Amino acid sequence: MAYTLPPLPYPNNALEPSIDATTMEIHHDRHHKAYVDNLNKALEGQAAFQNKKIEDLLREINKVPENIRTAVRNNGGGHANHSMFWEIMTKGGGEPTGPLGDDIKKTFGDFVGFKTKLKEAAMGRFGSGWGWLVWGGGKLQIISTANQDSPYMEQHIPILGIDVWEHAYYLKYQNKRADYIDAWWNVVNWPAVAKRYSEAKAGK
């Protein structure tokens, strides 16, 4: 069974002005589609891996045959990362409430401290990569990964992630990654993030 490109859950211009419509179109329709196409191509003839959920495929990345592992790592990670990325954005912003909001404050001191630490992780990633809030080791953690590496490869569950590849922001923000990160908080879909958090804690 081939992996498929999920549709955007909103129009390309839905996240304006924080993320422009042209960036969304190129990011989803070209970049994400290329990850899906290249992942399927890499897994041709590999029935044992083709039918896995993408999360399980990445958790077991070291079991993938060595001759295709890098392609699966890059493109499978890109597929999983972006599938989550579209879901946790909307015309949102604000702060999380409920158990997620409480746990963020307990873990990072307050919401401002959490935003600062995640921004540091995203800004500190040299070149392309991601900044993440993950559930791992029974607690919330902030990490960053290179390229399209996924937290699933480290046995963490991604709760929230910000894409800091230049294709995610360069048309609007050029080399001002910090400005993009600051604007990105305006489109975080906290209910969707909270759902991921509750499912991660429950082991789903």
Radius of gyration: 17 Å
Q: What is the CATH homologous superfamily assignment of the largest domain?
A: Iron/manganese superoxide dismutase, C-terminal domain
Low-confidence stretches: none
Alpha plus pi helix count: 9
Structural class: mainly alpha
What CATH architecture label of the largest domain applies? 3-Layer(bab) Sandwich
The proportion of residues in beta strands is 5-15%
Q: How many DSSP E strands? A: 3
> What is the CATH topology of the largest domain?
minor pseudopilin epsh fold
Which term fits the overall shape?
A: globular
The level of helicity is 40-55%
The termini sit apart by 22 Å
Features:
204 residues, mainly alpha, Helix Hairpins, minor pseudopilin epsh fold, 2 domains, 3-stranded antiparallel beta sheet, 50% helix
What do you see in this structure?
The chain is mainly alpha-helical and 204 residues long. Helix content is 50%, strand content 11%. It is built from 9 helices and 3 strands, in the order H-H-H-H-H-H-E-E-E-H-H-H. Strands 2-1-3 form a 3-stranded antiparallel β-sheet, with helices on both faces. The model has no long low-confidence stretch (mean pLDDT 96).
Gist of the model:
This protein is 50% helix and 11% strand.
Topology (SSEs and partners):
Blueprint: H1 21-42, H2 47-50, H3 54-59, H4 66-87, H5 98-108, H6 111-124, E1 129-136, E2 139-146, E3 157-163, H7 170-173, H8 177-184, H9 190-201
Antiparallel strand pairs: 1-2, 1-3
Helix pairs in contact: 1-4, 5-6, 5-9
